[in-house]
């Protein structure tokens, strides 16, 4: 999940007796439970049109998204715009989410206002979708699985680039990228799970090293669009090499 920027994995299950029921973040995405509006009705809303246009721009031009889309296709999980993305109104604290129950990425049309923000949200949620495709992720019962995907999303999506951190008035030198990834992963878990901060921190810390160093499908931490373009080119060349073996 990315807050103010993106949330991950909404769904519903019962909690054990005596525990508060967890809605798995669905409260942040109220449109998930509404009857879909007709295209004509949706087209009258500027938010929806803007969201669709920015999404198309991201999918067509952003190297982070293009690499992830190609990697998912090669993993047998082809992503279709009309099927796997949904522009909806959300709670004010989030900008997107991955609904594993429907394999659909939710884009918060009322909270995403700039193309750079859309690029980051789509990338963040596509990393969750990629993890969902390639691994048996237990989003709802295993907080470590969720923590791992949140670490990877924060690490690889550009969430923690220097410019983004400066825009948040957060500064640091040695180890700042890791600190940002850890903090954002914890915040994302707390936004969509009714667990204590201590539980979220413990889950993140226990899987941090392994998941921070899992750089698939990028092969590197893309700190900029230039890095992402290189990663995309390397991914394409790697696939061409494997095809000739």
Automatic annotation (TrEMBL):
GO terms for cellular component: mitochondrion. Keywords: Hydrolase, Metal-binding, Metalloprotease, Protease. GO terms for molecular function: metal ion binding; metalloendopeptidase activity. Residues 1-23 are annotated as: Disordered. GO terms for biological process: mitochondrial protein processing; mitochondrial proton-transporting ATP synthase complex assembly. InterPro entries: Peptidase_M76_ATP23. Its EC number is 3.4.24.-. Belongs to the peptidase M76 family. This is Mitochondrial inner membrane protease ATP23. The gene is Atp23.
